[in-house]
Amino acid sequence: MNAFRISTFKKKALAGLILMFFLSQGLSAQGQYAADTQTIQLYVVAVMLIFVCVAVLITAIYTLQVMQFLLVKDSPETAIVQESLWSRIYKRYIAGDMTPVDPEKEKAIALSHSYDGIVELDNYMPPWLKYIFYGTIAFAIIYLVNFFSLGLVQTSEQEYMAEVQQAEIQIAEYRKANAAAIDENTAKVVKEEALLAQAKSIYEQNCKACHGGAGEGGVGPNLTDEYWIHGGDVKGVFKTIKYGIPQKGMIAWQQKLKPDEIQSVASYILSLQGTNPANAKEPQGEKLTSATNTSGPATLSVTD
C-alpha cells in the first residue's frame, strides 16, 4: 500500500512538473511583448520561481524513488508492478491494443467481402491515425473561424500587402537617407508615376510662369522639342535647375528643392519632349537626340 501511495504521488508530481513547464512557456511567450522594465523584471522573477519549483519537484521525485526502492527492498510482498508512463502513452495514443484477436471471434469482425479467399477484418483505426484525423477536423474549424470571422491571422493576400507596404516604407527611408548623395554627376531618369506626379506639382508651382504649364515656353525656352540651350539629358537639366542661369534670370533652386526633387523635376521635363503643346515657342539652341532614353550625355546634332 505504501508503494502504491508513493507511485500515486509521483504521478501528481510529474503532472505538476508538466504544468509548470507549460506555464513557463506561456510566461516566456508573453515576455516577448513586454515593453517596460518593471514588467520584464516581474517575468524574470516569475521564471526564477518556476525554476526553483521545478528543482524542488525533481528533488521530491528523486527522493520518492529512493524511498520506494527502500520499501520494496524491505517488503517485496507489498511491491506493485507499475507499467511505465511511456508504455501507457504508447498503448493508448499511438499503437493501441495490439493483442491478437481470438480466432473464434474473427468471424464477428470479418467484412462481407473477400479477395481471392483473403478476408478483411474490421479492425480499429490506430490511435495515432485517429488523432491526426481529429486534428485535421479541428484545424479546419479553426481555419474557417479565423479567416472568415475573427481574422486573428492574416491571409496570404493580407501578408503580401503588408510586406509591400513595409517594402515601400523601407524604399522611402532609403531614398530619404540617400537623397543628399544625388548630384549632377549621379542623377538618373526616374519613371515612377508617384515621383513624376510630385515633380509635375513642383513644376507647376515654380516653373510654369517662365516655361508654360505644358512646357511650351514663354519667357523661358520651349521644353517639349529637341532643342536645348543648356543641358538636354537628365544630368544637364539637373545641373541647370540646381545652379540656375543667373545671367538669363533663372535662379538656382538648390536651396529650395532637395536633390531627389530636382532629379524628379528633371525627369518630368524630359518626359515632356514630343508632346507638341499648343502655342509652342520656336526652337532655341542646338538639337539634342536621345535625351529621354539615357542618364548620360545626349548626342549632339547641330542643324541649320
Helices, strands, pairings?
Blueprint: H1 2-31, H2 37-74, H3 85-95, H4 106-109, E1 110-115, E2 118-121, H5 127-150, H6 156-178, H7 193-206, H8 208-211, E3 227-228, H9 234-243, H10 259-271, E4 286-289, E5 299-301
Antiparallel strand pairs: 1-2, 3-4, 4-5
What would your notes on this structure say?
InterPro entries: CcoP_N, CcoP_N_sf, Cyt_c-like_dom, Cyt_c-like_dom_sf, Cyt_C_IC, Cytochrome_c_Oxidase_Subunit. GO terms for molecular function: electron transfer activity; heme binding; iron ion binding. The chain is mostly helical and about 300 residues long. The chain folds into 3 domains: about 1-80; about 85-150, no CATH class; about 195-300, Cytochrome c-like domain (Cytochrome Bc1 Complex, Chain D, domain 2, Orthogonal Bundle), CATH 1.10.760. It has 10 helices and 5 strands; from the N terminus they run ααααββααααβααββ. The protein has a 3-stranded antiparallel beta sheet with strand order 3-4-5, with no helix packed on it. A two-stranded antiparallel ribbon has the order 1-2. A hairpin with a 2-residue loop joins strand 1 and strand 2 (about 120). Helix 3 (about 85-95) crosses helix 5, helix 7 (about 195-205) crosses helix 10 and helix 9 packs across helix 10 (about 260-270).
